[in-house]
């Protein structure tokens, strides 16, 4: 039986996570959202980070776990930040997909918004 190793994230790791999230928020043109951050223990073992969001008020809460089951390298922290920001990028599309009634034009509009955000992140204005 193998034992799971645990690694603690530091204040410096949290600072990098936050800075990387904000970098991608800017690149994906998500500045109209209100972003909050926390460095905490997450309820799901093995989860390195997560984001909670409210579509209507456009509020997010990015969380970096204080305990990881993989070594929290700079690259892994940056990848976790990008992963969580992409959830915000696709949040409205997710909301439409899970709604009981959905307007096809709203889906198309959000589909285009995501494409423009990716284009902007890659090529700039």
Structure characterization notes:
It comes from Pseudodesulfovibrio nedwellii. It is a single chain. The protein is of the alpha+beta class. It has a single domain (7-123), classed as Zincin-like (2-Layer Sandwich), CATH 3.30.2010. Helix content is 49%, strand content 19%. The chain has 4 helices and 5 strands; from the N terminus they run βαββββααα. It has helices at 11-27, 74-89, 91-98, 104-123; strands at 7-8, 34-40, 49-54, 59-65, 67-68. A 3-stranded mixed sheet has the order 2-4-3, with helices on one face. A hairpin with a 4-residue loop joins β3 (49-54) and β4. α1 packs across α2 (74-89) and α3 (91-98) runs antiparallel to α4 (104-123). The longest helix is centred in the last third of the chain and has 20 residues, at 104-123. The chain is globular, with a radius of gyration of 16 Å. The mean pLDDT is 92.
Q: How is this fold's topology laid out?
A:
Layout: E1 7-8, H1 11-27, E2 34-40, E3 49-54, E4 59-65, E5 67-68, H2 74-89, H3 91-98, H4 104-123
Parallel strand pairs: 2-4
Antiparallel strand pairs: 1-5, 3-4
In a nutshell, what does this entry contain?
The chain is an alpha+beta fold and 125 residues long. The protein is built from 4 helices and 5 strands, in the order E-H-E-E-E-E-H-H-H.
> Given the helix and strand composition, which structural class is it?
alpha+beta
Q: How is the main sheet built?
A: 3 strands, mixed
How many helical elements?
4
Mean pLDDT score: 92
Report strand %: 15-25%
What helical percentage do the residues reach? 40-55%
Strand order of the largest sheet: 2-4-3
Our count of domains comes out at 1
Tell me the number of strands: 5
Topology as a string of helices (H) and strands (E): EHEEEEHHH
Text of the CATH class: Alpha Beta
CATH topology: Zincin-like
Oligomer: single chain
Unreliable runs, pLDDT <50, ≥5 residues? none
CATH architecture: 2-Layer Sandwich
For the terminal residues, how far apart are their CA atoms? 53 Å
Using only CA atoms, what is the Rg?
A: 16 Å
Q: Write down the overall geometry.
A: globular
């Amino acid at each position: 039986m193998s034992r799971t190793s645990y690694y603690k994230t530091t204040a410096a790791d949290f600072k990098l996570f936050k800075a990387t999230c904000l970098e991608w928020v800017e690149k994906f043109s998500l500045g109209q959202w209100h972003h909050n951050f926390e460095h905490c223990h997450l309820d799901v073992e093995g989860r390195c980070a997560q984001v909670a969001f409210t579509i209507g008020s456009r509020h997010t809460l990015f969380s970096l776990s204080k305990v990881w089951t993989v070594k929290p390298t700079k690259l892994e922290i940056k990848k976790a930040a990008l992963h969580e920001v992409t959830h915000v990028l696709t949040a409205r599309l997710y909301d439409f997909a899970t709604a009981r009634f959905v307007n096809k034009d709203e889906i198309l509009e959000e589909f285009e918004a995501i494409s423009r955000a990716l284009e902007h992140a890659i090529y700039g204005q």
